[in-house]
Amino acid sequence: MLGFVRDIMQTGDAVPLVRLGTKVADAILQMSRRGGGYAAGCVGIIDHDGRLVGIITDGDIRRNLRPDLPELTVDAIMTRDPKTARPDQLVSEAMELINASKISVLIVVEDTRPVGIVHFHHLLRAGVA
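The chain above was modelled as a monomer; its predicted structure follows.
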């Protein structure tokens, strides 16, 4: 069994990210992209310095369905200060956070900058359940 989030997190193109000010339609395209072999079901929102400032999930999209949704910017519907993991965090701690928060994915950050993503399926495959 792998012990740290860095051992199982997806990196690079598998981490769906858009900048503040991006139209929701473009964010949906990014979150639907199959980076790392699957669609993450979320997109991280970064500021002009590359710091994670929010997240939009499939649930956020559903809760904000309205005719003008595609034209809104991500700033209008994102969840600010999302739950995150650290690369040096134990996978068991990440699973506890996912379970306690009733979420399915964590963006992995170092110094507030996204470096990876870990989905509860990655944790299950690592034998953390």
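The chain is about 30% helix and 25% strand.
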